[in-house]
Each structure stands twice: as C-alpha cells, then as structure tokens.
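Pipeline run #58 for the internal structure catalog. This entry was flagged by the ingest filter as a single-chain record with no existing model, so it goes straight to prediction. Upstream metadata was stripped on purpose; only the residue string is passed forward. Reviewer on rotation: M.T. Logging verbosity set to normal.
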Amino acid sequence: MCLAKTVAIDFQRHAALSGREQNMDRAIKQQVRDLLLHRNVNDLLDLCEKDRRFWSALRLCLYETDDSILWSAIEATAGLMNRWWQAGREEKVREYIRGLLWLLNDESGGIGWSAPQTIAEIIVAIPELLEPYGGMAIARALEEPPLVKSGLWAMGRLGKRIAEVVGLFQNMILGVFESDEPETLGLAAWAMGEAGFAPALPSLEALKDRRETVRIYIDGEFQEKPLEWWTKEAIRKIG
C-alpha cells in the first residue's frame, strides 16, 4: 500500500478504532505517548526508524485531544520527515504530504484535523517543500469550516515564507474575519501579522477593543493573550 493511502487510512479509521489500532502493542503506544509528553523527540525518532510500529503509533497521536501530545506529535512527525529527506528519501516525504493534502478534500471521506499544521511544520523543517504544498494546504483548509483554524495556524507558522502565495486567495483569507469566534479571530490576527498580510489591516483595526483571551501554540509553548493584544501586535508587524 502506498504511503499516501496509509496516511488517509490513519485519519479515516481513528474514530472507529480500527482493528489495526486495537491490536497495536499497548506498550509501544504508551512509550510513544510518554516520549512525546517529555519531548524526547530524538529518542522517539530513533525508534520510528528502527521499528515501524513506533511510526504507526506516532501517526495516531496526530488525532490526540491532549494538546501536549498532539503538538509534540506534529513536531516529531516533521522531524522524522526531515530525517527521511536528509537520507535521500525525498519522494517518500512528498508522498506522505500528498496523503495529508488528500485528507483536506471532501472525497477523502474523513477530515485530517491536524494535517495543515503538520504540513506547515514539515515545510519549516524542509523549506524546499514550500512550493507547491504550503499554499495548497492553507487554501484547502480554509475551504472547510472545521479546518479554518488549522489553516490559519499553518499560515502563521509559515509566516513571510508564504506571503506571496496567500495573496492568490486573498478573498478567502479575509473571509475568516466574518467569524465572531474569538479563537478564530485571534489565530487570524496572529497569522496576518506573521505573514505581513497588509490587506487584513482594516479587519484588524475593527478588533482592537476585543478582550477575550486567545491561546495559540507558538515556538513550542502556548501563549495566552487578549484578542486586542494579538490584533495590535499584528498591526505593528504589518506596519
């Protein structure tokens, strides 16, 4: 089975607890979770390269509801892709990303909740993959209401790298400001500032008095700030 199909199956079957997951060695799954919680990424990546069951367990952690495990899993996955890339396995990395992108289509039959963040983190580790995958991941995520916040985080993570590309779907990006949900608006403000997206300035100006707290994962930790702070910081960065 090709890697892209494997990625899709991982996401689609998680909710139903596939037979493969149920039969996975519980000790391995627990070991992976413990390594992620303690951020022992290098040790985990060594195990993933030696035994594919650890890689299977890591992929399943991309569905975690525990943010401490989820974000560590996203970063570890990017680290493993970087190892593969450096080892000359470029096509295997591209195939994995294509599998994640496929999950952002209606035809996939499932939703890759963390796919946009994972793709963005891989691109940060391997900048050569920015084109075409960065813009594709963000655009597809913004087309799906449940994935808008994931797409905004991906845009913010890629920052100035993606500035020129996102201009191609400017109206879609500005449309996120029609939401009144604080987390969406906070992520939008942060993403606009990181990407230097000047067309968003009028929308940002309208948020300068919003004081709801918004929590965003940045540089390995969560930061909680009032929405007005995220907004003013974005305006400052855009200049």
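catalog note: The first strand starts at residue 213 and ends at 218.
catalog note: The first helix runs from residue 3 to 13.
status: ready for reviewer M.T.
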